[in-house]
Amino acid sequence: QVQLVESGGGLVQTGGSLRLSCAASGRTFSNYDMGWFRQAPGKEREFVAAVNWSGDRILYADSVKGRFTISRDNAKNTLYLQMNSLKPEDTAVYYCAAELRQFGPPPADEAVYDYWGQGTQVTVSS
Predict the structure, then answer these.
(1) What is the number of other CB atoms lying within 10 angstroms of the CB of residue 51?
(2) CA-CA distances (angstroms) from residue 21 to 70, 78, 80, 102, 103?
(3) Which residues contact 71 (CB under 8 A, 6 or more apart)?
(4) β-pair type (3-7, 68-73)
(5) H helices then E strands: how many in the chain?
(6) Where does the pLDDT of residue 102 fall: very low under 50, low under 70, confident under 90, or very high at 90 and above?
(7) Count of C-beta atoms within a 10 Å radius of residue 11
(8) Count of beta carbons in the 10 Å neighbourhood of residue 71
(9) SS3 label, residue 42
(10) CB contact set of 91 (below 8 Å; sequence gap of 6+)
(11) Distance CA 28, CA 99 (A)
């Protein structure tokens, strides 16, 4: 089992920044590809960003490319999401997820992720 705990959400104005963290425990963190997903009210959960186990392969959704940065620190068992130039449409509950590492790029498909955190709310006011 992998336990994931997100933190760092909150209320921010349009154009502001937040950094989300996801602390992992239970298994060797570097054995997992990691992803961030989000779910806005009344919408399906969607992919935001993913990073492979070593941190050298990264994917972003087009909607956040150039504004968000995913990173990981395997020594600290922590995943990050730096969010800049936030927009009201970024308002959502943000989840981190873990998938036992595979050969190739990290997945954007939430169906393949094995473990999920409880989520952290991000609200961007206009």
Answers:
(1) 25
(2) 10, 7, 5, 23, 25
(3) 51, 55, 79, 80, 82
(4) unpaired
(5) 0, 11
(6) confident
(7) 12
(8) 15
(9) coil
(10) 40, 122, 123, 124
(11) 12
69's tokens: 């940065």
Listed residue (17, 20, 12) closest to 117, CA to CA: 20
* Contact of 112 with 43, CB cutoff 8 Å: no
Average pLDDT over residues 109-113: 95
Closest CA to 55 of 14, 93, 105, 95: 105
Q: What is the pLDDT, as a whole number, of residue 49?
A: 98
Say if residue 71's pLDDT is above 90. yes
Q: What tokens does 19 get?
A: 């950094």
Query: Structure tokens of 37?
Result: 């997903």
The span from the CA of 60 to the CA of 108, in Å, is 8
Of 98, 121, 126, nearest in space to 8 by CA: 121
Q: How many whole angstroms separate alpha carbon 90 and alpha carbon 81? A: 13
